[in-house]
Amino acid sequence: MPKKRSGGGLSATQQAAKFLGVSVLSGAVLAGIALPAVGALGLAAKGSVESFDELPTNLKTPPLSQRTTILDAGGGKIATVYSRDRTVVDFKDISPHLQKAIVAIEDSRFYEHGAVDLKGVLRAMNRNAQSGGVSEGASTLTQQYVKNVFVEEAGDDPTKVAQATQQTIGRKIRELKFAIQVEEELGKKKILENYLNITYFGQQAYGVEAAAQRYFSKPAKDLNLQESALIAGLVQSPSRYDPVNDETEATKRRNIVLARMAQVGDISQEQAAEASDTPLGLKVSKPKNGCITAVDGAGFFCDYVRQVFLNDPAFGKTSEERAKVWNRGGLTIRTTLDSQAQKALQESVKNHVNKSDEVATAASVVQPGTGKILAMGQSRPYGFGKNETQINLSVDQGMGGGAGYQPGSTFKPIVAAAALEGGMPATKTYASPYQMDYPAPVQACEGKTWNESGVPVENENESEVGPYDMKEATAKSVNTYYIEMISEIGICPVTELAKKMGVERADGNKMLQAPSIALGTQEMSPLTMANGYAAFASRGMYCTPVAIESISQRVGEKSKSLPVPKSTCSRAMSEKTADTINTLLRGVVEDGTGTEAGLGSRPSAGKTGTTDFRYAAWFVGYTPNLAGAVWVGDPEHKRQMVDISIGGTWHSKVFGGQVPGPIWRDMMSGALNGKDAPEFNLVNIPDRKKPDEDKGRDRGDDDRDDNRDSGRNNDAGGFIGGLVGGGNGGTETNGGTGTNGGAEPNPTISIPEGFFQGPGNGPGGRR
After folding, report:
1. Quick one: which of 244, 251, 459, 718 is 20 to 30 A from 473 by CA?
2. Element housing 209 (H / E)
3. Reading across the β-sheet that carries 373-378, which strands appear in turn?
């Protein structure tokens, strides 16, 4: 007598022979039930033993997609994200009631048959023939499990999902052969465990653990009889029997499961009746998926982590491979986010800018010398509602941000650093008139020159008339001083140093070769500016930004570590240059345009910035152990910050030191509370000897990054967006091509035809 395997099923060979030896029955199984219109003999006409044997027998079971948990640097949970909400549990962690309920309602002879239930097939054939359709199926739990494996492998690709579930003879044959293999290799207990972990139970819940949490807010091991019956009943149609949306239908279905359990002897009739009279007792937990659930306003940082994962080759050679790993989930990602810094950032933003204001603010904090991103946030929350957005205003376009914003005079220290690197003394003096034309020609990269004549630039106030040295010009943010400086040293040293500091355009394009870059006309993101200034704080060492510390991935019952990208540090400038810039920028917060951003007794340095027509205002600053950038403006680059209410305070004109400065001060004070207060390595920069006529000159407004809002400044001759000019004689042929940067990837602005062909080196961002 042939041996039977444990559980009462025939061996794989016996099942295959029996199945394929009777073509009429085969046709009934695969055509008469699955596809009634084909007819009972469909498979006999099209199939054969040989074609069945040629099918692969190795079912490649993909790791089940699960939740991914994102943690801060201290191990606190930031958010849970998932393609499919699933937590895989062991068989012992599933209620015995639920195990029995699933078997009773889906495949009551599960422990008696093999991969195919021939009695079930005959019963289904008879009932379907009587009904004239498909009123009953004959798939075993094992076959259902195999189908779910195909669906899981298809992921979120709708085409692949359709292929995995299509009702064809070919798919049924393939499903059956894999079911035979699974029965042979896994055994009943493991098949049931896998089935309960892979199946969809509605309400975004995959697997019994997620279902138990969703409907009853408890683990699967603690489900009682009636709760188990309800969940088991959902498998047939999760939407039809959804207890959240249709309690009546869900109750009927639950009671059918209880009756079936009594019928097969799993429970008594009395137990079934008592459970049927019990209310559903739902305790629903809403799905908590995605960065929208992040704590302390860290939704945008959460999304940045996702962008890093999907873009970095460390997590897969192709974008498809990386997306597959991310969607599969089961990851525990420990990030660089510092909870203290994040809370301080969000509290400061909330106190200074309302989410309903006409303008927004975004800020980022990084650690000098490591590139670690410690905090990231903005005034408009992560979401889909009014005054909410999913655009990360702190980062570059390629990482989920917009096209960036002109940084204004916060770019001037980079010009000064390039000059110092080239040997210019920190005592350098320029005439620095109130108003002048851009000098021409100016040397650019690759032997090209910028050569536009008659393009004016001016300082914020008429009282700002030189001569000035580097210290005073930086503290007062004198535009004409820095234009004279870049005209002398050339454009290329500035753009090359900026690249070494990681300061590049937010839209991914190359920095334009025009002297107006000295006034911050190239659109940048707050994270870029914060990390660039961190190179000053770390005495000239630039470290690429990094958001992920470690990743562990659960595969089956085991966990493994994934390699993560590390920050790469390199020397951007000499220590002497960095120390000199630190000395200059200390003067900005002590006695310059950034006094409102000062941190009291704690050493700090920074620079204000305000762009043309006050579309954006900045403060970028640092201490030796922390660097941060704050931007305020209209993400769509439409609202000028003149006669405007921000955070409930009215401003006739917004300056970088006036609005972003206090946000930066409060953010950094909170982030640094209780931390060491190291000193800068300062250098001695002698004061310029001033003639008597210079004495008593007024320091002017607290921020001088903006030209006067005169009619001439609004002229289209090159001022919108700090428009940059082109060259002549075939050396730099592009006309002014500056853009109106903003948070939207495709900001909508109307520019006259041919506008970019003329001279266009407007004053751009100012201090």
Report:
1. 718
2. helix 208-216
3. 373-378, 360-366, 626-633, 616-623, 605-610
Distance CA(522)–CA(503), nearest Å, equals: 10
User: Tokens representing 141?
Assistant: 């739990």
d(CA 408, CA 182): 65
DSSP string, 474-504: HHHT-HHHHHHHHHHH-SHHHHHHHHHTT--
Residue 701 has pLDDT above 60, yes or no: no
What is the sign of the dihedral through the CA atoms of 578, 584, 588 and 590? Answer: positive
Name, in order, each residue with C-beta under 8 angstroms of 760's C-beta and a sequence gap of 6 or more. Answer: 452, 455, 717, 718, 723, 724, 725, 726, 735, 736, 737, 738
CA–CA dist 509, 493 (Å, integer): 18
Query: What are the helix (H) ranges across 609-685?
Result: 660-672
Answer whether 189's CB lies under 8 Å from 67's CB.
no
Q: CA-CA-CA-CA torsion for 469, 472, 476, 477, nearest 10 degrees? A: 40
Give Cβ neighbours of residue 586 (< 8 Å, ≥ 6 apart).
603, 604, 605, 680, 682
Pairing of strands 68-71, 331-335: parallel
**How far, in Å, are 12, 359, 515 from residue 438 at the CA level?**
86, 32, 8
Written as six digits, the tokens of 386 are 């009014």
Q: Which amino acid is at 188?
A: K
| pLDDT band with cut points at 50, 70 and 90 for residue 691 | low
Q: Which amino acid is at 267?
A: I
Distance separating alpha carbons of residues 282 and 276, to the nearest angstrom = 15
In sequence order, the 6+-apart residues with CB closer than 8 A to the CB of 407 are 520, 522, 524, 529, 609, 611, 616, 618, 620, 765
Residue with tokens 């006739």: 652
| Helix H or strand E segment including 652 | strand 649-653
Distance (Å, whole) CA 472 – CA 53: 86
Q: Do the beta carbons of residue 264 and residue 241 sit within 8 Å?
A: no
In Å, how far are 66, 132, 191, 330 from 559, measured between CA atoms? 13, 51, 22, 9
pTM over 0.90: no
Question: How do residues 357-402 score in pLDDT, each as one tens digit?
Answer: 999 999 999 999 999 999 999 999 998 888 999 899 999 999 999 8
d(CA 629, CA 415) in angstroms, rounded, equals 18
Nearest to 337, CA basis, from 548, 495, 553, 594? 548
Query: Does residue 163 come out as left (phi exceeding 0), alpha (psi in the -120 to 50 range) or beta?
Result: alpha
